[in-house]
């Protein structure tokens, strides 16, 4: 009996099967993370780029009358808001579901909420993730520094 047990204990047949059974689920999970992670990052960057570009486009809408009287560059609130909203409407990512625009005299901020669907995580009941994206733009006119 002892000899049979010793022979069985040192037998290496089936060792790869045990390793496969233990490591295959881990490999599948890692593959799912890579696929979902890459897809989600791509969609996040698309939404992020949209709000950043909207803020940048709107930052060019300065209040000309205020500039002529005071020589200070500030945003025209209504024009900047309209330009940012128009840019978002024209270039809206399908995943960007909600936006908010705040305009201060020297800064415009465009906030967004992106709903990004998952592929692999649906197996675990996670069908989508909500992420917040934001972009800021600052008005400038003329030369800001020596040498420009």
Description:
Strand 1 (about 95-105) and strand 2 (about 105-115) form a beta hairpin. The chain is an alpha+beta fold. The protein has one domain (about 20-135): Pantoate--beta-alanine Ligase, Chain: A,domain 2. The chain is built from 4 helices and 3 strands. A 3-stranded antiparallel sheet has the order 1-2-3. It has helices at about 1-10, 15-60, 65-70, 75-90; strands spanning about 95-105, 105-115, 130-135. It is rod-shaped, with a radius of gyration of 28 Å. The termini are far apart.
Structural class: alpha+beta
In the CATH hierarchy, the third-tier topology is known as Pantoate--beta-alanine Ligase, Chain: A,domain 2
User: Can you tell me the residue ranges where pLDDT is under 50 for at least 5 consecutive residues?
Assistant: none
Mean pLDDT: 86
Tally of separate helices? 4
Strand content: 15-25%
Query: Biggest β-sheet, characterized?
Result: 3 strands, antiparallel
What sequence of helices (H) and strands (E) makes up the elements?
A: HHHHEEE
Number of domains: 1
Main sheet strand line-up: 1-2-3
Number of strands: 3
The helix fraction, in percent, is 40-55%
